[in-house]
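quick one, two chains, predict together pls
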Amino acid sequence: MDLETSLQLSFAGMSAQGTRLRVIAENLANAESTAQTPGGEPYRRQVVTFKSVLDKSMGATTVKVAHIEPGGGKFDRVYDPGNPGADAEGYVLKPNVNPLMELMDMHEAQRSYQANLDTITAAKTMISRTIDLLRS
Amino acid sequence: MVASVSTAAAAYATAGKMAAGAGGAASTGSSGTGFTDLLQQAAGDAMGALKTGETQSLAAVTGKADLTAVTEAVNNAEIALQAVLAVRDKVISAYQDISKLAI
């Protein structure tokens, strides 16, 4: 049934956005994680990409997390000679996490999750109203 | 909850057999068994949905399941149960209407 399929699709969307939020949380939590050895690399931000997958049992195109891959962007160099990750000149590389960008991403994930939730509510209302029709 | 659905399915089956028997020895209707089969299948589907819901809930309690997966399974079970209950109510009311017919 199409309504039940739309429920399944929306749940898939929700779980994909959940993964995205998890990665954003990882990025924000590690925004200050520097290298532990001199000259080592700090935390590199992760980026989620989605892909559409044809689910044959459903007969519809659902969404899945394609990859969680390292994102681009340069590391900041900060002078901090006391840090164990500092190089010979006393500079430490900071992660390429931009909190503002992560927050924007987070809002987008939130909105997308909400849209899927609304679709579920609509489909559920439609189904139960139809069942009510059968009942009355 | 699962037990009640299976007993309901058994009740439908016996009711269908009784109806087919009452319909006359000559025309033990294939339509009667067809309807019973339909009901049994619907009840079986609902039972499967309920079982999935319970399995997912159990997995959630032990911290192994995704929240969305649990919600999805429980949601599906709820919808299936609602549909089966509505059909059952309809069947019972139809049976009562027939039993009230003047002979």
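Residues 2-135 of chain A form one domain.
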